[in-house]
Amino acid sequence: MRIGLWIDEEGRTIEQIGSTAKAAEEAGIDRIWFSQRLGWDALTLIAGVAPYTRTIEYAVGVVPVYPRHPLALAAQALSVQALIGNRLTLGVGSSHPHMVEGMLGLSMDRPAAYVREYVEALGPLLTGAPTDYAGERLTARGQVTVPGTEAPELILAALGPRMLRTAGELTAGTTTSWATPNVIEDFVRPTIDRAATAAGRPAPQVVAGACVAVTDNPDATRAWIRDHYGAAGSMPAYRAVLDRGGNAGPEDTAVVGDEAAVAKQLQQYQDAGTTEFLFCPVGTGAEIERTVRFALDYV
């Protein structure tokens, strides 16, 4: 099982983020992940941070598809790919109604169907091939070429059955949120594997992202997670995966405890079929430092 590290970029300078990325590379972390939130543009951030490192891979988990046309995203992703020496994994996803409809004023009708069309149009563009795509709701005609680039690895954030089938049939795999080992083993892994096999594709990646805190006070850390991320439990896609795992909220999916307890929980993810575990350090400043040290030592 590979180890990824999510770096919290909010409120931090490029120098601070780059220093963390350099330490991750030196420790042997497989891949650095950034989120697309309301500050730094994640792909631009990757282009800025990459010069602090030499070989480590970078991923964005994930770019919401509704605000960016496939031609625009392909141009940005291939530009970043050229700048960082072909080390990019491009994660895409649907986002959530309160952002797509509430903030952007766009329709999120039938998101699984729209995302499938989006991925069908985007895939060839990332290879530099011309596209003449006309779906029910999306049109993409054109070609994007950036010299010296390889197609970035494409993955799809997927929690429901239709999204997982699209991920298995059309991409290199999926990245999950709030999915505990039992959900990965009983639902995510078999669903995406069946789709990939039927499409004649290789076994897909399953990247499991989880809040992690190496701490001597797990209850306090879970309370912190509930206070900071509890609203995720009201978002339909997240609510479904939480219910599937029998969890009341995000705090119940966290990997928390001392070093031995966290290592034991990581083994459960590996046994469930996770191909990469994504550390998302949380908690107090001291807990985050302890968790990052553990992640760097774990590899």
Keywords:
299 residues; 20% strand; 8-stranded parallel beta barrel; Luciferase-like_dom; F420-G6PD/mer; alpha/beta; TIM Barrel; TIGR03564 family F420-dependent LLM class oxidoreductase; Lucif-like_OxRdtase_MSMEG_4879
Q: Could you describe the 3D structure shown?
A:
With 299 residues, the chain is α/β, with parallel strands linked by helices. The protein has one domain (2-298): Alpha-Beta Barrel (TIM Barrel). The chain contains 11 helices and 11 strands. The protein has an 8-stranded parallel barrel with strand order 1-2-3-4-7-8-9-11, surrounded by 8 helices. It has a two-stranded antiparallel ribbon with strand order 5-6. The longest helix has 18 residues, at 181-198. The radius of gyration is 18 Å and the shape is globular. The relative contact order is 0.13. The model has no long low-confidence stretch (mean pLDDT 95). This is TIGR03564 family F420-dependent LLM class oxidoreductase. Pfam families: Bac_luciferase. InterPro entries: F420-G6PD/mer (IPR050564), Lucif-like_OxRdtase_MSMEG_4879 (IPR019910), Luciferase-like_dom (IPR011251), Luciferase-like_sf (IPR036661). Keywords: Oxidoreductase.
